[in-house]
Structures are given as C-alpha cells and as structure tokens.
Write a structure and sequence with these properties.
This protein is of the alpha/beta class. The protein has a single domain, classed as NAD(P)-binding Rossmann-like Domain (Rossmann fold). The strands form five sheets. A six-stranded parallel sheet has the order 2-1-5-6-8-12, with helices on both faces. α1 links the parallel β1 and β2. α6 packs parallel to α9. It is globular and about 60 Å long. The model has no long low-confidence stretch (mean pLDDT about 95).
C-alpha cells in the first residue's frame, strides 16, 4: 500500500469529491485543503496568504483543482476577473509556499482545460499545439503559467487539460439531463462543433497513472481518444435515455442567452487527442461515448 501524502485543493467539486476516496482506496493518505478553519483538516486563507497544513506540512503530491465555476453565469468584467483570480492567485500562493519547503513536493498536479486550444474547428490538438485567442484560452494559459515556478524546486509539474467530464453526479452532463429526460434535448447551434470528453472513471485512473509514471510531465490532455460532434453527443444521450432528440438550440439563442460564455463553451469546436497518455501506455476503459453514457446512466 502506498502511504504517500496527497494534498488536494478543490476537493468539494465534481472531480475532487470523487478523487479523494479514489486515492484513499489506493492507499494514499489524503488531505483536503479547506477555505475555513478546521480542527482536523488543513486550511488556508488566500487573502492573507496563510496556510495551516498541520500533519500535511510536507505532502508528497499536491493536486490543485481550485477555481470558480466557469459556466456559472454570464462573463461580465467582474466575473472574468473572479475566474482569473480564483485560479491564478491560489496557484501562485501554493507554488510560492511549497517551492520553499524542504523537502519540496515530488509532484504538483495543476488543473487546466482544453479551452487552452480555443475554437479550432476540426483541427486535431496535441499537447504541443499552440494556445487559442479566446478568453478561455488566455485563462488556461495564465493558469498554467502560474504553476511553472514549482519546477525550480525540482518538483515534477503536470497540467491537466481536461475536457467535458462525463458524470451523472455533476458538471455539464447533469445540467443537460433534465431537458433530455423530458424529450426537450437537441443539438446546440449547427451541432458540427467537436466535443472532447472523458469519463470520470478514466479521469481518476489517468491521475493515478500520472502519479505512478514519473516520465509524464507538462501539459496532459485528459480526454478520450474519440471525440464526437455535438449533434452525435446529443443523439447518443437521447438514445441512452430513450427520448427523442428533436429540439435544437439555435446559435442565435445561445448568443442571446449566454453571450460570450455561450460562444466559447457551447459553440466552440475543440478536437483534442490524449497523445501523452496514449504514448505512455495508458488504456482507456471508456474510449467510446456510448459505453460511458451506459455506465453513468444505465
């Protein structure tokens, strides 16, 4: 059993809430860095730049998933700044603190997103592809840049460029389900935009794979090797629920309802391939969307 200490930031979100028990089952000692003072758990105050780590003062591995939900509300100027600050300020604080610790962590895993690549149509993106020019691209690039200094301490850095996570417990799929269960679902816009996704179970296994394979570093695309168009995603979801897929959401309605957020999150096409995971020998259990939806909704 592996008794290494893992400190997770953002443990109450969709991924963090399942990653904690997953790593515990695999023998890791897991700490959750919380935002309020706790007797039993490590906590921090980002505003005054203080961390109270208790028995997790020297974690072997840090997994930073913290960041305000990018899909919650319109992207006003204030909202955009909160999205930036919730990622950059927290990451910088963690990096500044832990790079000066002895011993420094052996591995720092920092969240990112496939939004890094922006709207690129059908062009396939690998980890060495250039960033896009959209707000989500700039946000992801800044987020990754804010973690780079941890490498000066000899710590291995991995940035998880995550696609749409398929889980009935939350995220985009959970938001789609009510409409699709009522038979009110359909493609968004033209439906031709590419959606790169990953089953939550493959995500967890990929994190463990990264931990156990020290040759993996830098950006890692956390997506299935088989992306789908939005039209096919909608059709497969409706078929799994045994409902029709007849009511599209026109592009004009997306822009009216969600403005810039809708354009970049719902209408953008990002065709991403998990080259680093594949090259390292990782095997996806849920390569095809049909199998993932069956697992989550069957």
């Amino acid at each position: 059993m592996n008794k290494k200490k893992v400190l997770i930031i953002g443990s109450s979100g969709l991924i963090g809430s399942v990653l904690v028990p997953f790593l515990q089952r695999h023998g890791f000692e897991v700490g959750r860095l919380l935002r309020r003072a706790q007797d039993k758990h490590p906590y921090w105050h980002i505003e005054n730049k203080s961390l109270h780590l208790k028995e997790f003062s020297s974690p072997n591995i840090i997994i930073n998933l913290a960041g305000e939900n990018i899909a919650s509300g319109r992207w006003t100027k204030k909202k955009k700044q909160r999205l930036i600050d919730s990622r950059i300020l927290s990451t910088r604080l963690l990096v500044e603190y832990f790079k000066s610790q002895s011993p420094a962590p052996e591995l720092f895993i920092n969240a990112s997103a496939i939004g890094f690549y922006g709207d690129r149509g059908d062009q396939q993106m690998h980890e060495n592809s250039s960033p896009g020019i959209d707000f989500v691209s700039q946000l992801s690039e800044l987020w990754e840049q804010s973690s780079q200094d941890i490498k000066t301490a000899g710590t291995r850095l991995v940035n998880l460029r995550t696609g749409l996570v398929i889980s009935k417990q939350g995220g985009a799929l959970a938001k789609m389900l009510p409409a699709f269960k009522l038979g009110l679902g359909g493609r968004i816009g033209s439906g031709k935009q590419i959606m790169s996704w990953i089953d939550i179970n493959d995500f967890l296994k990929a994190v463990l794979f990264i931990i156990n394979n020290p040759q993996i570093n830098g950006p890692v695309n956390m997506v299935s090797p088989n992306p789908v168009s939005n039209q096919n995603f909608s059709r497969l979801l409706a078929e799994q629920l045994q409902r029709p897929c007849l009511l599209p959401l026109p592009e004009s309605a997306v822009k009216l309802l969600f403005a810039e957020m809708g354009k970049e999150l719902l209408l953008a096409s990002t065709n991403v391939f998990p080259k680093k995971l594949i090259d390292a020998g990782f095997e996806f259990e849920y390569e095809k969307l049909q199998k993932s939806l069956l697992k989550q909704l069957g």
